[in-house]
Specification:
The chain is an alpha/beta fold and about 150 residues long. The chain contains three helices and five strands, in the order H-E-E-H-E-H-E-E. Helices cover about 30% and strands about 15% of the residues. A five-stranded mixed sheet has the order 2-1-3-4-5. Helix 3 links the parallel strand 3 and strand 4.
């Protein structure tokens, strides 16, 4: 099952009962479930009610999600994500940026990232991958590359 944002996480991005039920149903009869886009850095949301993994407080709930999927004999990956050039505009009051200052659409013109900001995002992905391991996921997906552990 490919990653599809369900918008069923709690408002703070933690795993909800509705999200667990949705993934339990989707995991039946499939070999691999890729859990939806999960935010690695505070302020990097691409949708409302998006799953979060930017803090250790989310690990227990994500562990329940990984266990729920595994209970149906499916492997589970988690898609790690951070806002890119086309941010979710209805999330107000956050610093938007993109890898370079070259506009990608007429509606977006955030500034390019500094080297320090790039390093901060790289570390956020590394920390998120470590949390995914602690939560019990079989691997993670970042863009088109799948890493397993």
């Amino acid at each position: 099952m490919p990653p599809m944002v369900l918008n069923r996480a709690r408002e703070d991005g933690s795993v909800s009962e509705a999200l667990l039920i949705s993934y339990e149903k989707r995991a039946e009869g499939v070999g691999l479930v890729v859990v939806e886009s999960t935010n690695v850095m505070r302020g990097g949301e691409i949708a409302t009610h998006q799953l979060q993994i930017h803090d250790n407080r989310f690990v227990d709930g994500l562990g329940k999600l990984a266990s729920t999927i595994a209970s149906k004999q499916a492997k589970c990956l988690i898609q790690l994500n951070h806002v890119e050039q086309k941010p979710f505009r209805s999330i107000q009051g956050r610093h938007l940026f993109q890898p370079s200052a070259i506009p990608v659409s007429p509606r977006t013109d955030p500034p390019g990232m500094s080297v320090g900001e790039i390093e901060e995002v790289v570390l956020a992905f590394a920390d998120a991958a470590e949390r995914a391991v602690k939560a019990g996921f079989d691997g993670w997906r970042f863009k088109l590359v799948i890493f397993t552990f």
